[in-house]
Amino acid sequence: MTPTTPPMDVRTTGKRNVLISGASIAGPALAYWLHRSGWAVTVVEKAGAPRTGGYPIDIRGTAIEVVRRMGILPRLREAHIDSRRCTFLDADGREVTSLSPSAVAGSVEGQDLEVRRGDLAALLHGLVRDDVEFLFDDSIDTLDGVDTPDQHGEYGHGVDVTFRSGRRRTFDLVVGADGMHSHTRELVFGPEEQFHRHLGYCFALFTLPNTFGLSRELVLWNTPGRAAALYAVGGDDELHAFLTFHRPKPPFDVLRDPDAQRELVATTFAGAGWKVPDIVDALRDADDLFFDTAGQIRMPHWSRGRVALVGDAAYAPSFLTGQGSSLALVGAYTLAHALATHRDHSAAFAAHERGTRPFVAMNQALVGEGTATLFPTTARALERRDAMLRDLVTLPSPPARPAHLALTLPEFGR
Fold first, then answer.
1. What's the DSSP call for residue 397?
2. What is the 3-state secondary structure (H, E, C) of 207-264?
3. 34-49: string of b/e by CB count within 10 Å (b at 16+)?
4. CA nearest 334: which of 306, 362, 308?
5. String of DSSP letters for 305-322
6. Which contiguous run of DSSP H or E holds residue 175?
7. Which of 322, 313, 310, 330 is nearest to 114 (CA)?
8. Using the 8-state DSSP alphabet, how is residue 38 labeled?
9. Which run of H or E residues covers position 382?
10. Are 411 and 405 in contact (CB under 8 A)?
């Protein structure tokens, strides 16, 4: 596929130029802020077009301020899913309790947002598509000159990039915004296993027809170590299905084999009650299956030489925190601000880490503050979880979790 803007050697324009790998959330958000501060931006994305659909994601706390400054908050409020209830079921499908989604997620009702991932991605792409060069259906193959100094001790003229398509370009900086399984990170920092922290769960996401009569609600079935959820994000004919199960060690042997993934899930949920057999049957025919482990990326540094990482590529918090997209938006903003403030990229990367790492650490620590108890692994833990949920029905709503509001954003110059 051809780029969405004419190809050119942007180094000849006098602007600093940057290549961003990944066009989901962090990538286009970073592209917006860097373009605004005077960078020439190219985004490469292995998909053939902006990705639509996807599971619902949260935008919370500091990230709300980021999207407000981008001018897309009103449209995101229009896209807000606004679920009405979250119902928990026992092993036989009987109701344990039903309560508001905000009480379960710890979000601030009336402020935090939940939208379809594709809706946010489309808004971000729309902001930058006329100002940023997009290279769809392509990806980075090799990077040279990342941190090799010349004879004067300077770090070269830039990063020489060879793309999978065969084109070659040189950029002042490269940023990996290509997700938890980042290829950019592997090229520059090494294998994912060095940085991956497994949290003990696997999950499968897919869509299926809404034959269950659900509307704007989530229904979650649990037994120890297993959970199945159906999420109706509107009144349409499609449901998001979610199957998660405890797995002490990540099953690396099935991560690249969809048939093996389906078999593993089916075996794990054999004999389950409620509607789980129907959900598993739908899984076998799903053409949008997404299977992965619940994990975090924890790195001692988010940059090396002229290459930096942002979003899940640098500090994935896992779905158990509900903070992945919010961290991507905030991290893109603070990285762009650092690059706008410091002409030297090394100083910019260092300043970005100093300012943002404590916020990231607080959000990643949410998995150690009870979030994972939504998926108990023992009968006793499940009983405690259910008792806690029943209490939420009668107790006042807790205050917002501090990590959502812990970062004061600097202002971009106008």
1. P
2. EEECCCCCCCEEEEEEECCEEEEEEECCCCCEEEEEEEEECCCCCHHHCCCHHHHHHH
3. bbbeebbbbbbbbeee
4. 308
5. TTEEE-THHHH---TTTT
6. strand 173-176
7. 322
8. T
9. helix 379-394
10. no
Taking CA atoms, 32 is separated from 131, 332, 356, 414, in Å, by: 9, 9, 19, 14
Distance (Å, rounded) from C-alpha 193 to C-alpha 215? 40
- Is the Cβ–Cβ distance between 204 and 211 less than 8 Å? no
Where does residue 110 rank: exposed (0-12), middle (13-18), buried (19+ CB within 10 A)?
exposed
Strand partners, 20: 43, 175
CB-count burial class (<10 Å; 0-12, 13-18, 19+) for 15: middle
**Which residue in 193, 229, 190 sits closest to 89, CA to CA?**
229
* Amino acid code (one letter) for 29: A
Half-sphere exposure of 213 (CA within 13 A, CB side): 1
Nearest to 310 by CA among 156, 176, 130, 163: 176
In order of 37, 120, 311, 334, 404, the CA distances from 33 in angstroms are: 6, 16, 15, 9, 21
Per-residue pLDDT of the chain (414 residues; tens, 9 = 90+): 334 443 333 344 468 999 999 999 999 999 999 999 999 999 999 999 988 877 888 998 899 999 999 999 999 999 888 788 889 999 999 999 988 766 665 555 557 889 989 999 999 999 999 999 999 999 999 999 877 554 444 545 799 999 999 999 999 999 999 999 999 999 999 999 999 999 999 999 999 998 888 888 899 999 999 999 999 887 667 899 999 999 998 888 898 899 999 999 999 999 999 999 999 999 999 999 999 999 999 999 999 999 999 999 999 999 888 899 999 999 999 999 999 999 899 999 999 999 999 999 999 988 865 456 778 889 999 998 888 888 876 655 555 554 554 577 888 764
Q: How many residues does the chain have?
A: 414
Tokens found for residue 116: 């379809």
Angle made by CA atoms 341, 346, 352, in degrees to the nearest 5:
55
Q: Which residues pair with 304 in a beta bridge?
A: 307
- Residue 203 phi, psi dihedral angles, 5° rounding: -150, 155
Which tokens is 331 given? 């991290």
Separation between Cα atoms, residue 331 and residue 353, nearest integer Å: 10
Q: Give me the phi and psi of 14, to 5 degrees please.
A: 90, -15
Which tokens belong to 278?
């129907």
